[in-house]
Amino acid sequence: MPVTVDKLKLLSLPAAILAASFLCVSSGIAAEVAPPQRYVDSGRIVFCSDFSYPPWVYVDPQTTKYVGVEVDFSDALAALMGVKAEHKNIQFDGLIPAIQAGQCDAIISTLIDKPARREVLDFVDYALVGNVVIVPFASDIFVQDLTGLSGKKVVVQTGSQLEQDLVSASDKLKGDGKPGITVVAIPNNTDAMQQLFAGLVDAYYAVPEQASYLNSQRPNSVKLGSPTLGARPVGIATAKKDHDLYEAIAAAFKVYQANGGYDALFTKAGLQSLEVPH
């Protein structure tokens, strides 16, 4: 089941999870929240992400290191559990198969918390993320909803909820006897951005933070071609079999909110409006 802040309320978690400020694990980091023993023994939690989604997770072009809000966030939660966060780069549509195959312990990659995914994953929700149509700066496209993209070519990340949204809107248009949307699904967002910059598509369907990031890299290169279209929770996902890890992450998030770290991180990134209530 998903966990949002208003549901946490200390959750009736095992006392060993909440009362672990004394714990010191093999990594040498003092823990405020006790993770399951297998993570104490290994000294790490492995997080899978698709590192093509700035500012959330991406590869720094100067250092080639993994960076982003979700990297800092998962590092902070791991530290509260007295272990290290290890990061693994997995293509978005391979994230859930990767966790099911045991390649990682948790997913943090702006993964939308939705019923179909809850059948195999538990979620600790940490942000409410809306979506927007992003267009070249000189474009005259501005739509109020996705059906306004009738006859347009739109790039989106493969396997995402956003791809499903575009396909649904296109099907509706066709059912109404109107031209559909040509949906160009690309495995990672870095390549999707390049499709937009190269003029191969009319628009890019993503999150508004990406428009800000693109303009920080290439001033006045893009703009919003729609209002924010809906807001969905995104969360850290763990496999159902690892419910004890889910509980530990939920408890660590509660501590991170209480100590001000969560507010500080999202405010620094300009994402404070996306915080879950707490």
From TrEMBL:
Q: Mind telling me which Pfam families this protein's record contains?
A: SBP_bac_3
Recite the UniProt keywords alphabetically.
Signal
Whether Signal counts among this entry's keywords is yes
Domain (Solute-binding protein family 3/N-terminal) spans: 44-273
Q: Which range is the signal sequence, renumbered to this chain?
A: 1-30
Q: What is this protein called?
A: ABC transporter substrate-binding protein
